[in-house]
Structure formats: structure tokens, C-alpha cells
């Protein structure tokens, strides 16, 4: 997986910086989980999330973007509005590492080489890879490690607003839901086939999680000659 990260980073930075403009920076915010354990609030950060982000601006309207974000995901049935979950009383906490790559589209032109403060809403989507440890719940409701980990594919759906705050810095606020092609993040479906009878919840509905936060990026590169792509 570290080779994948190196390839993604090299794709962003091997081009001639005199012909394009780049952004590198940080993400900081919170996360919340939506699945078979805990509350089902769509936007309710309860764990810290932080990471790094890089962009390659191909035009004033779109950019290639990669990010790496670390966080914990937590679910507590006692905080749910569902009385059945409250009675069950399950809870979990697991650490995740997300690698994401895709394209960001702005609603309006966002040319950082023109003078003045400018801002625009934007959308981002692509693909995510999320690494998580595997757990399951015993018949007594104990959250138990399987001593293995897995990668879950997903689709990010991000809405944000960004503005330059100086010549070289861009500040953005965004909310991004991640739909994963996995139902294992909360332990409701064990990874080992031998533990399949311990599965519970809606096994036809996969797990979601949401990152809410801000990004601060530093821009560099001379005025670009944008291509048609």
C-alpha cells in the first residue's frame, strides 16, 4: 500500500511546476459513523480526524486531489434514538486510515493567479481505501478483536466552500460522507466466515462514515497555461 501512496503523490508532483499550480496542506476536523451500532445522525462528529491533502489544479474549475486521513470511528447504542439499540447496549471504537484520490469541481472559476479574495463552493468525489481492524460481537455482546485488518473500498461525496485568505493560502470548510462497500467496520459482520452466524443488523446495508472539518493549503507554482483537459 505504501507504493500506491508514492505513486499517487508522484502523479501530483512530477509535472513542471512552472506550468501548473499545486496545493499542499492539512485537514483537521471530526468523524462520525453511520451503521448497525450507535446513533444514526448524519452529521455529528464525535472523534477527532486529521490528515494531509494535495491538489493539482488542472483548470480554474477542476483539480486532481489526494488525501490521507486518520481517525477513530465510534458507535454507542446508548446514544441512539432507537429504543431497540438502547436496550441492546452495544458499543465499539476502531481506528481507521483513509487514502482517497479523485477530482474536485468548483461551482465558479477559482483562478489563484488573479488578484483579490475569491471563494467558491466545490464538490469532490473519487475512490477511497479505508484500513480498519476487524472485530466481532460475541453472543454475550463483548466487542472482540479478530487480530486481522482489512481494506474497504468506498466512494467519497464531499461538499465544501473554499476561499483564498492570502497570496499563498487557501482555507476551506467541508462535509464529506463516505459510502463503503463493506459492512465490517462496526463489527456487525465478522471478517472470518466461521463467525458468520454472529452477524447482526441490516446485512444488506453497508457502513457509512462522515468527515467534517477544514483544510488549509499552501499554493505554489507560476501562472499556469491551462490545458484543455
From TrEMBL:
<feature type="domain" description="DUF6089">
    <location>
        <begin position="4"/>
        <end position="228"/>
    </location>
</feature>
<dbReference type="InterPro" id="IPR045743">
    <property type="entry name" value="DUF6089"/>
</dbReference>
<feature type="signal peptide">
    <location>
        <begin position="1"/>
        <end position="19"/>
    </location>
</feature>
<protein>
    <recommendedName>
        <fullName>DUF6089 domain-containing protein</fullName>
    </recommendedName>
</protein>
<keyword id="KW-0732">Signal</keyword>
<dbReference type="Pfam" id="PF19573">
    <property type="entry name" value="DUF6089"/>
</dbReference>
